[in-house]
Amino acid sequence: MSDFLTTALREPWPWYVAGPLIGLIVPVLLLLGNRPFGISSNLRHLCAIAAPGTTSYLHYDWRSVGGWNLAFLAGVTAAGALVAALSGDVHVDIAPATRDALAALGVTDTSGWLPASLYSWDALTSWRGLVLIVLGGFMVGFGTAWAGGCTSGHGITGLAAMELPSLVAVCGFFAGGLIGTHLLLPLILR
């Protein structure tokens, strides 16, 4: 059993296994529990816990709407920590064309989870690091609040529920990702 678990954690699962597993979670959460699948609203719940009622946005009963969501966040975080602890040193395989494109932009440390030249405490002290981490994080948070949810919430739950706003949001996420990857990232890294 231990060898099976180690292999299952080290090797990527094929799409035909992982996709249906994710797809099975959504009907269970939506139909049986009337629970949406998403992460972004947890930041609002955590802020409402830490500073209740400081703004009208945080003035709500987070226990009635956020308890399950916070438990979901804790489970996702614990599962990620468990997988990271059990999997050891993992080599991230990316396509050779992607590795070459990143190398052309000066990013050569592409074997780990994240390139340390872009995502580290040292990188945070540079203008690139500030733009990528701080400004990028702000824009992701703003976009998530503006769209009324994150990519997992809209892309999995919203599309499964056939919600038109989720389709519009997912199209916006993809368009933003393409613009960021092909236009903004080369400007920032050069």
Characterise this structure:
The chain is mainly α. The protein folds into two domains: 1-88, no CATH class; 120-190. It has nine helices and no strands. The protein has helices at 2-10, 15-32, 41-50, 62-87, 96-104, 121-124, 127-147, 151-160, 164-189. Helix 3 (41-50) packs across helix 4 (62-87) and helix 8 packs antiparallel against helix 9. It is globular, with a radius of gyration of 19 Å. The protein starts with a helix and ends with a helix. The model has no long low-confidence stretch (mean pLDDT 81).
List the helices and strands and how they pair.
Elements: H1 2-10, H2 15-32, H3 41-50, H4 62-87, H5 96-104, H6 121-124, H7 127-147, H8 151-160, H9 164-189
Low-pLDDT residue spans: none
**C-alpha termini separation:** 48 Å
What is the number of independent domains?
2
Radius of gyration: 19 Å
- Beta-strand share of residues: under 5%
Instruction: Average the pLDDT over all residues and give the rounded result.
Output: 81
Q: What about the largest sheet?
A: none
Number of helices: 9
Considering DSSP H and I runs of 4 or more, what fraction of the residues is helical?
A: over 70%
